[in-house]
Amino acid sequence: MIPQEIVDFIHSSQIGHLGSRDENLIPTIRRSWGTNVNDTKEILIVYVVQAQYEQMLKNFNDNGRVALTLGEWPSHRSYQFKGQFLKAREMTPDEVAFQQQYRAKPIFLVKDMGFSDEMAEQFTYYADFVIEFKVEKIYNQTPGPGAGKAVELAK
Amino acid sequence: MGITLEDLHPAFQGVVPSAIITCSAEGEPNVTVLSQVYYVDHEHVALSFQFFGKTIRNIEQNPYAAVLVHHPETLALYRLDLRFEHRETEGDIFDEMEMQLEAIASMTGMEDVFKLRGADIYEVKSITKLDDWA
């Protein structure tokens, strides 16, 4: 089970990168646009843009291995979640509402970096698709002495 | 004409953080945030090696990696597909990366954390623009 402290972090993070690899162990990476946790805190629900995920979905269906890194700026706090792909599906109406609320975070971040409202809006995608995976391991990736250390899953 | 590394020169100033993915010999992908991508020449970049982490272990087993970089003027996102070639721990590239990393650390309040251990040189196999709006 994902510890509550990390669940809180997941909800506050503004940056997401999802990764996979193909049958030749060649990795690929795309942005993700919001993450949620299921009721039992074992599954991550990641919001993405389907048109950008053709290769990623092929990889997930072929070998199932998933890596997701979420980051918080400007604290640099970051965690990586590794696990097994479960399914890809359309978003529910509740998830569409959740993701639209989530967009405010990266938009604020981009504006805080000095970019215009228009660029921040354009930069931040509306997700239209869901990747679900079961979390097996969590690693602290915040730069510093704790970087790379595994986070113990809750019972 | 395709996108060249020269076209992406502004993306290598560290204004917007990048991300890197590698994969272990056992097939486990690993994604991490990357503070620095450095232009070496028209077909190579250098990535900062700061911590003895999974990324470093992975590229020693499997040389393929990919990084995402944002153009700092348009915010357009590009993926560079890479193959690790070698590590430099001294010389002009290392020295320039060290100075650039110090500047990035200073801007982001990470002076006590960021320390360059090596400049990892990668061949750029392909560059893909991932956003169509910019």
Q: Would you spell out the secondary-structure blueprint of this structure?
A:
The complex is a heterodimer of chains A (155) and B (134).
Chain A lengths: L3 H9 L2 E7 L5 E6 L2 E3 L5 E6 L5 H10 L1 E7 L6 E13 L2 H10 L1 H9 L4 H7 L5 E12 L9 E2 L4
Antiparallel strand pairs in A: 1-2, 1-5, 3-4, 4-7, 5-6, 6-7, 7-8
Helix pairs in contact in A: 4-5
Chain B lengths: L17 E6 L5 E6 L2 E5 L2 E6 L4 H8 L2 E7 L6 E12 L3 H17 L9 E12 L5
Antiparallel strand pairs in B: 1-2, 1-5, 3-4, 4-7, 5-6, 6-7
In words, what does this structure look like?
The complex is a heterodimer of chains A (155) and B (134). Helix content of chain A is 29%, strand content 36%. Chain A has helices at residues 4-12, 54-63, 93-102, 104-112, 117-123; strands at 15-21, 27-32, 35-37, 43-48, 65-71, 78-90, 129-140, 150-151. In chain A, strands 1, 2, 3, 4, 5, 6, 7 and 8 form an eight-stranded antiparallel sheet that branches. In chain A, a hairpin with a 5-residue loop joins strand 3 (35-37) and strand 4. In chain A, helix 4 (104-112) crosses helix 5 (117-123). The N and C termini of chain A lie close together (6 Å). The model of chain A has no long low-confidence stretch (mean pLDDT 94). Chain B has a seven-stranded antiparallel sheet with strand order 2-1-5-6-7-4-3. Chain B has one domain: Electron Transport, Fmn-binding Protein, Chain A (Pnp Oxidase, Chain A, Roll), CATH 2.30.110. Helices cover 19% and strands 40% of the residues of chain B. The interface between A and B is large, with 39 and 40 residues.
